[in-house]
Amino acid sequence: MPHYKIAIIGAGPAGYFTAQALQNSQSNELSFSIDMFERLPTMWGLVRSGVAPDHPKIKSVSKVFEKVASEPNFRLFGNVEVGSDLDIEEICPRYDAVVMCTGSNLGKKLGIPGEDLPGSISAAEFVPWYNGHPDYVGVEVPLDGDTAVIIGAGNVAMDCARMLALEPSELDVTDTAEHALKALHASKIRKVYIMGRRGVEHAAFTAPELRELPKLEHTDVIIDNEAVQSANQRASAAGEIDKQLASNLEAWRLIAENPQSGHERVMEFRFLSTPKEIKGEGKVEEIVFGVNGIKDGKVVDTGETYSVKTNLVISAIGYHALPIKGISFRDGKVENDNGRVLGTNIYTVGWAKRGPSGVIGTNKSDASDVVKLLIEDLSPEPKNGGDITVVLPQAKSIIDQVAWSKINTAEVAAGEALGKPRLKEVDKEKLISLGQ
Ligand code: NAP
Question: What pTM was estimated for this model as a whole?
């Protein structure tokens, strides 16, 4: 029976679902050894450092990941960065196939004046900051003003807004990183704007996220009823309203028609507003928006502007992949054809392949599609390129599955004492020592 060796780069959802798809494809005629490489000493990618702490149910998918990792054909090499500790050229000859599951973690830029002023940050920094990603602990998040502005009408913007607009004690029972929790408790921010550049009907939020807004116990959520009605009229005039849009518009109607009031903390949605300039002397003080209209179904600049005084602007407008030495990237993604990196034994799954779209489960079907192609491409004779351990950096403490289980168990135990799902360690060296 042919036995193939597969390397998976990146221990996030795409990586684990790829390993699972490979495990599920095994038969009497086909088997795999799977080696997973991860640059951090912690696993689970966005499930750990992306999913909002107040959405713990989404994180339960980590149980699936740990089941995959417990299979005898799975080896973990954490704290190994491909492209610096280990080159892709050292990996490819040793495996029958290599699957890049490295996601996209650089925030897209707005490209407007003042964007680089202190106080203007990307969700690609803010989200890993509150989630305890070791590389983002030092991000400066000014929380001493009363107003924050989030740019973008997608679920990441919504996560950022909730984290700033929730009563911080609601986060005490979550796995929000301790440094962020402390800062959020001291935060003076009481008003959070979420700004969309197109109409309400074009927002990328999904209905479950909108439907939870009226349930927030300590935050008033505001959307102009007229904006929702106009969106409904435009959507109806444009033709058939699909199921998803109908569900979103109904969720908006419920928010608009049942405004909460009286809470100190407010989350307000504004649409048809394009960020034009961020102003301030040495730091963010104000953001200027261009007012848009919709003409013949197209968003047009009316020429009018308005501004919001703030010292925190968070842009949540999408992500690019961080380039990795030896891999060709295009448009912020690994250059690929349906997951195949043509002319190589490299494949890609997840955000590295298709860009930052879809929910965590989307990666499951994506992985299964790409694994089918990978199996089609396998040569009848498996490669015999030798074991990767010969070229692993000797000076590095490798986090294998046993070490990661120790880290995981230690964090969960530390959290239990405080009534939290886990207490995240954010220092790489301390994480490594927890694994010993
Ligand atoms: P997204 O859903 O693509 O939303 C990006 C938003 O940014 C859009 O509203 C877009 O507006 C806006 N935008 C882009 N460029 C802009 C610019 N230059 N100026 C102003 N606005 C701009 O991306 P995301 O929020 O980063 O989410 C990524 C993926 O993760 C999505 O599939 C999302 O559903 C998923 N996610 C899911 C959850 C969850 O399930 N709870 C949580 C977080 C993320 P236009 O439409 O006009 O381009």
Answer: 0.97
